[in-house]
């Protein structure tokens, strides 16, 4: 009990240090790519490959595509060869680099070889036994480190001890919202491009994410324990698909954060992409938009969709609706049949009162609730140009982290989905 008390006090100090750091607004100039495992830590093992080799190959290809398309972005790798890097050191490297984004790449495994799919994690408390098992698996590298019990970086954390996971109950992160947004963009891209189960965005107690002080996600690109997926994630074409998805998610995230546009014709000078490109029309026909695909495939776990909760500020009560009230006052029938854009300017783990100082006197908003209460402008924009103006207005009101989010009929969607919907109208 004494050790646990000391641990909790230490973690409270760590969390305080995280919040004391200034959050950079509107810039994505440095990204840290973390190939999971390495050296004496092979990660999950397939019948003919090791997780550490797959993650390194994908990470290096992704970094190349990012640098080929963005002169203003610095890509930093936690490793570029088959070496052993501790989980604590990976996070330290990202923090020292003052990175704007951290992406850890992994491959999944399960005792049942039929398990398959892609999923992306952000740091948080597991809501299922399966999520906790993933966390234990990814945290298990700590046990392979020499004298880890006396390593101050881990504060006595033991991946196999239920008591150790109490530490995560204190976890708070100013970057949770942006991490969730980046994770959702990744899953949206997977859902469109890769024909497998979409296992969605999840939270788990992942030590490498817990220690980072920027938006951070860990993505599982497939199951190495599934023979079909093992072949796919080892193939040049499969890795090109994965890199394509991760790059597009990065480009989307950067564009939203900075209020800029994605590269019009991005360069993908990596093995497997030429073959991929030749089959593009066929794959485009097979891969329907994410919403339709999730409804059609029974074995697919759809990406997380927000439950709409609209707060009526005048009556101080909460009601549910399929389409936010804010749309009805300004939108025509034409806009109702199109994708629209709102500005998310705030998020909170608790519902805020109308007079909350966090709202800065702003009252014209709607609230969407999933894991957090997300505050959006009641006003909507019909296109990205209008949305950028609205974003700037909210930033001028003091909401420096305000960013653009597309919606269709009351649901959050990706920017690619919004473009497809509006182009088809």
Structure, described:
It contains 15 helices and 13 strands. The longest helix has 23 residues. The chain is of the alpha/beta class and 425 residues long. The N terminus is likely disordered. Helix 2 links the parallel strand 1 and strand 2. The radius of gyration is 21 Å and the shape is globular. Helix 7 crosses helix 8. The strands form two sheets. Strands 8-7-10-11-9-12-13 form a seven-stranded antiparallel β-sheet, with helices on one face. It starts with a helix and ends with a helix. 39% of the residues lie in helices and 18% in strands.
Give keywords.
alpha/beta, seven-stranded antiparallel sheet, six-stranded mixed sheet, 13 strands
Q: What would you say about this model in short?
A:
The protein has 425 residues and is an alpha/beta fold.
Ordered list of secondary-structure elements with their pairings:
Layout: H1 2-20, E1 30-35, H2 51-69, E2 74-77, H3 87-96, E3 101-108, E4 118-123, H4 129-139, H5 176-193, E5 198-204, H6 207-210, E6 216-223, H7 227-234, H8 236-258, H9 273-278, H10 280-286, H11 290-296, E7 307-312, E8 317-320, H12 325-330, H13 333-336, E9 340-348, E10 365-369, E11 373-377, H14 384-396, E12 403-408, E13 411-412, H15 415-424
Parallel strand pairs: 1-2, 1-3, 3-6, 4-5
Antiparallel strand pairs: 4-6, 7-8, 7-10, 9-11, 9-12, 10-11, 12-13
